[in-house]
Design brief:
Elements lengths: L1 H32 L7 E7 L10 E4 L2 E14 L2 E10 L10 E6 L6 E6 L10 E2 L4 E2 L12 H4 L4 H16 L5 H13 L4 H18 L5 H19 L1 H9 L2 H13 L8 H8 L3 H9 L1 H8 L1 H5 L16 H6 L12
Parallel strand pairs: 1-7, 2-6, 5-8
Antiparallel strand pairs: 1-4, 2-3, 3-4, 5-6
Helix pairs in contact: 3-4, 4-5, 5-6
Pfam families: Mce4_CUP1, MlaD
GO cellular component, one term: extracellular region
GO biological process, one term: biological process involved in interaction with host
């Protein structure tokens, strides 16, 4: 009797556990599928790449769930392979000729969703959008090709922040270029060769831009922000050689010569002048001798041309005050006739 009771209790417990497990499984599946109550219509759109997008994926606009992905098929249109994605939308949302659908990252785990962008002028209602009206998916891991040595020195939070900023840039979300430029600067801080890191990052972004068909305006602007300083530097590349020749190798000897002449940064001009002249009148008297000193330096040149100071009618007799004024200036005034 006791054995049968224990067996019955064991089976009851097992049944309860199985029921709870089944209930949790249903809850998890519903959370993953994220079902919607009603759907107003079924539409299709062509994408050149839907990597990471799955059936029962979300269709969102401004973060609000407005539909679900119902089917994904690979087709060939106009000589190229495309993925036709079937979606359903809830009222009042619908596709129009100016609607833009984009495959975007929902989180860093790689789950994608379809973003529905409604323009100011929606245009005529349609049931199908060609690939020209859609933005394909992209693989963010391609951005890190060649950057593994740098990434190993970064923390997980820094790598996640860099990834989020890159995704926001590529998808046209977030705060624009500033966060990504800041992440690129931080990335180069960990690199020994910054130029190589910038070159690798730019090449990876160009490949992603090619994959997206040039449909990421923020990415194009970011690449232009990187290429502008590089292109400007290339225009003055020949001047770098002159800078090397006329830089420290040229200015250092001149600096040494000035120091030998006494013109060093430690030179105290006030102290030197005070030591050379005992008073202001003595300094003025010394300065009055400068014209005569300079004239004396020019005497060899003047004597080399004897006729330079000769007068045909003789030298004029000057008053005493004029002689004092012209004293030492080597000025000669001749008689007019």
């Amino acid at each position: 009797m006791n054995h049968s009771i224990r067996l019955t209790l064991g089976l009851a417990k097992l049944t309860v556990v199985a029921a709870l497990a089944a209930l949790l499984f249903v809850i998890v599946i519903n959370a993953i599928k994220n079902p919607i109550d009603t759907a107003s219509g079924r539409y299709t759109a062509d994408f050149t790449d839907v990597s990471g997008l799955h059936v029962d994926g979300d269709v969102r606009t401004r973060g609000v769930l407005v539909g679900k992905v119902k089917d994904i098929r690979r087709l060939r249109r106009a000589g190229r392979n495309v993925a036709e994605v079937a979606i359903t939308l809830t009222k009042p949302y619908r596709l129009t000729e100016n609607t833009v659908l984009s495959v975007k990252y929902q989180n860093l785990t790689g789950i994608r969703y379809v973003d529905l962008s409604v323009p100011g002028e929606p245009g005529k209602p349609v049931t199908h959008l060609p690939s020209e009206k859609t933005r394909p998916s992209f693989d963010i891991t391609k951005l890190f090709n060649g950057l593994q040595p740098v990434l190993t020195t970064m923390s997980t939070d820094e790598i996640n922040a860099f990834t989020r900023n890159a995704i926001a840039l590529l998808q046209g979300d977030g705060g624009g270029l500033a966060p990504m430029l800041d992440s690129a600067r931080k990335l180069t801080d960990y690199a020994r060769d910054r130029e190589q890191v910038i070159s690798t990052l730019t090449a990876n972004l160009i490949r992603l831009a090619t994959t997206m068909g040039g449909k990421s305006p923020d990415l194009i602007e970011f690449l232009q922000s990187l290429s502008y300083p590089i292109s400007q530097a290339m225009t003055v590349l020949p001047l770098f050689g002159k800078t090397d020749q006329l830089g420290p190798g040229f200015t250092r000897p001149i600096d040494n010569m000035l120091i030998d002449l006494g013109l060093s940064p430690e030179l105290d001009i006030d102290k030197t002048v005070a030591g050379a002249f005992s008073s202001v009148s003595a300094a003025a008297s010394t300065l009055r001798l400068l014209p005569a000193a300079f004239a004396g330096l020019q005497l060899p040149t003047l004597h080399s041309n004897p006729g330079a100071m000769s007068c045909s009618h003789g030298i004029a007799q000057l008053p005493t005050d004029v002689k004092v004024l012209l004293d030492g200036s080597e000025v000669v005034i001749c008689k007019p006739h």
